[in-house]
Amino acid sequence: MNTDHMQDREGAARWRRRAAYASIAVALTLIAVKLATYLSTGSVSILSSLIDSSVDALASVVTLLGVAQALTPPDAAHRFGHGKAEPLAALAQSAFITGSAVFLGYEAIGRLVDPRPVDSTGLGIAVMVFAIVMTAGLVTFQRWVIERTGSIAIDADSLHYRGDLLMNLAVIAALVLTRVTGSGYWDPLFALGIAGFLVWNALRIAETALDVLMDRELPDDDRARVVALVLAHPQARGLHDLRTRSTGVGQHIDFHLELDSDLTLAEAHDITDEIELRLREAFPSADFSIHQEPEGLDDDRLDNRIAEARAAARSGLLSGR
Questions:
Q1: What is the pLDDT, as a whole number, of residue 318?
Q2: Which of 59, 152, 177, 204 meets the CB 3.0–4.6 Å disulfide criterion with 86?
Q3: Same domain for 157 and 185
Q4: What is the mean pLDDT of residues 273-283?
């Protein structure tokens, strides 16, 4: 691995950690402010936001631990590294968010059955505006980090903070309607809607994490770009059995490279290095495994097995089996 590539990875690791620390700092600040506001107003909508910020803090700590573990270098027992600690952290976040949504739903239903007045709505609105400003700043920073690192855990963290922006707006709407109408039902109704939104967010986070843990292929556009870059080399005769996956902190890409059978081993090695260099420029956080084969070799291929399985499945559907 060249020096520039190592520096890129070290830089990405630093930004991952900084994003995790920033997330924790914002969550703790908002917990303190919202707790004081809830004690002053008694608003269940404010409570919903306080619960969410508490979950955010816990989830951000899990994110930090997951990021730290994922960045641990490969060792004798984990030669592919520890990158999947990130999607595991994302799954833990999903569980925390779901639990908070259930508790919030329970509280909201209780307030619908027994409505209570909401005091100091002006204070509540001001605090939620403050929360929106802080959360927007954090999300902007997180998106910047994600674009440069591809971190699954930071992306999951950012996803529920983006949800927080909508949640905070919903809380403001509930407080405004309560103040204007004097009805005690707006507050718990909005809280129920927020609980549903939290569950939806949790499912999205879990789906993304499971895709990584189950080694789902990279998007079709990324796979097509790999093929195009390989075949752009004048001495590449083809490729097959392309396999890609996210590692949690990057990607893993491997394929069989078809070359002229008259090349020497040294020549085939040099061509492969040139192709890998092109791929690394497009996928700087990826690891590559490239197997050279003579063009036209008739061997057992994963591509063929997948095509046969699809054909058999279609045949079974058409025959009604």
A1: 61
A2: 152
A3: yes
A4: 94
